[in-house]
Amino acid sequence: MIRRTWNKLLLAAVLLFLPGRLSLAQPALPAGNARADYISPFPETREIVRAFGDRLHEPKKERTVFTGKLTDARGNRVVQFAWELPGRFRYDEMGPSPKSLGFDGSRPWAGVAQPSDTDEDLMESLAADTTQGFLVGTNTGSYLRVLGRRFRIGNSPAYNGPYYDILELVGPVPHRRNRSVQQKFFYFDSSTFLLASVHYILRRGMQETQIVTEISDWKVVDAQAFPGRIVRTEDGRAVATVVMTSTSVLPKVDDGIFAPR
Predict the structure, then answer these.
(1) What is the C-alpha separation between 212 and 75, in angstroms, rounded?
(2) pLDDT at 260
(3) CATH code assigned at 171
(4) Spatial distance between the Cα atoms of 239 and 217, rounded to a whole number of angstroms
């Protein structure tokens, strides 16, 4: 049984991230397979792909649409967001002050303007800090490292779970205008292989903020796993909570919804 606190994990991660220590090369993708670039080829992630469902590699399942409620400092709002392979994203707030954000596959946008820092934070948690964001990231220039299996949180002698497989991913965040390279730690439940949380430090100038995106309330429908709740915390304080009320899996459509408008 592994007994490690978060502080020890951070120390180990810093040592692993020293120059010259990232040694896991990315394998070549199979030629001629139109779906191959959506699937992580690493053996370390096979159980994660299996638990998530086949919508990352089966045709006519490229787009996932979530509807739910956002709670933040501005109150509650009905929202809808869509994620489409190989990584396009759109987010809409309903109500008297509608708002749209997105990533068209090349750059982020916010209506006809540039997204604010808060906009990019929200997109990062809803798009990059997800299972699909993690798996696509392993094939688009990011480095993957398995830090260990069945980590525990806390030191209680009576601890009986949950346990986590922790994987480090280092690469650019496409949903940010500066495409900053970010070191993240993805915590997957060791029993279900579903994503539980993502941990990293966000740096803006001289300021550092500890970010945790918490993913919970997973439901399996037609062999597809969907999160029911996503919470972004900054230095331990929840700044955005999205609770899903419905989810749909749809085929990819060239309808232009991911383009700036």
Answers:
(1) 21
(2) 84
(3) 2.50.20
(4) 19
Question: Where on the phi/psi map is residue 76: left (φ > 0), alpha (ψ -120 to 50), or beta?
Answer: beta
d(CA 64, CA 250): 6
**Is 29 a member of any domain?**
no
H-helix segments, 106-249: 117-123, 131-137
Assign 112 a pLDDT band (cuts: 50, 70, 90).
Answer: low
Q: What is the pLDDT of residues 209-233, one digit of tens each?
A: 999 999 999 999 999 999 999 999 9
The rounded distance, in Å, linking the Cα atoms of 189 and 214 is: 12
Cα–Cα dist 144/209, whole Å: 23
Contact 211, 234 (CB under 8 A): yes
Domain count of the fold of the chain: 1
- 1 pLDDT band, cuts 50/70/90, is very low
Q: What is the pLDDT of residues 191-206, one digit of tens each?
A: 999 999 999 999 988 8
Domain enclosing residue 176, as ranges = 6-17+49-250
33: in domain: no
> Amino acid identity, residue 194?
L
Residue 153 has pLDDT above 70, yes or no: yes
Cβ atoms of residues 159 and 152 within 8 Å: yes
The secondary structure of 187-213 as a DSSP string is: EEETTT--EEEEEEEEEETTEEEEEEE
- Whether residue 251 has a cis bond before it, omega within 30° of 0: no
In a domain, 195, yes or no: yes
Average model confidence (pLDDT) across the chain: 84
**What is the spatial distance between Cα 159 and Cα 60, in angstroms, rounded to a whole number?**
43
